[in-house]
């Protein structure tokens, strides 16, 4: 069984560790560069992407993260974590840098303010069963994708219909929403299968 790390700078780290625990997957927080040598895959949680970028710089994690991601370490970014993985962002803060790796343009806070947080059922390609009950909290959407990126999920109904909220490029997975908050482990299981090389 692989060990999955969860970036522990800020945000929903504990919730991701808990879901991995429910799945019986060894999981550890990642806060220092050497922690990255002990994990087979990494989750970048939701939270606040500008804060996470600043903390990543303070903990000397920016280049180690870029190197591991560039060398093929599987990674899954949720919400702010999607922004961190995006090669390009729109509506970022002044000088906001990302780690990159995922050939997408993510629009930050695209769905509106905190008070406009919402839930929606999303059919996620590769996740069987009922639509995934997805929680969006000041979430980004994927404005555009490069040709190596596969769209896994879009909003189905309403004024936001068609907005891309789940993508994959090789070992990199990203969702606009927060699967760690709903008690449904199916997307974590997909990522663990990716880390195992089984998905
Ligand atoms: N709006 C946040 C950001 O830009 C992301 C919100 C979230 O992760 N729930 O980083």
TrEMBL record:
Top-level division of the source organism's lineage: Bacteria
The entry's keywords: Glutamine amidotransferase, Hydrolase, Lyase, Pyridoxal phosphate
Pathway: Cofactor biosynthesis; pyridoxal 5'-phosphate biosynthesis
InterPro entries on file: Class_I_gatase-like (IPR029062), PdxT/SNO (IPR002161), PdxT/SNO_CS (IPR021196)
Alphabetized PANTHER family for the sequence: PYRIDOXAL 5'-PHOSPHATE SYNTHASE SUBUNIT SNO, PYRIDOXAL 5'-PHOSPHATE SYNTHASE SUBUNIT SNO1-RELATED
Protein name, UniProt field: Pyridoxal 5'-phosphate synthase subunit PdxT
Family: Belongs to the glutaminase PdxT/SNO family.
EC number: 4.3.3.6, 3.5.1.2
Subunit annotation: In the presence of PdxS, forms a dodecamer of heterodimers. Only shows activity in the heterodimer.
Organism: Streptomonospora wellingtoniae
Known role: Catalyzes the hydrolysis of glutamine to glutamate and ammonia as part of the biosynthesis of pyridoxal 5'-phosphate. The resulting ammonia molecule is channeled to the active site of PdxS.
Active site: 79, 178, 180
Catalytic activity: L-glutamine + H2O = L-glutamate + NH4(+); aldehydo-D-ribose 5-phosphate + D-glyceraldehyde 3-phosphate + L-glutamine = pyridoxal 5'-phosphate + L-glutamate + phosphate + 3 H2O + H(+)
Binding residue positions for L-glutamine: 47-49, 108, 137-138
Pfam families, sorted: SNO
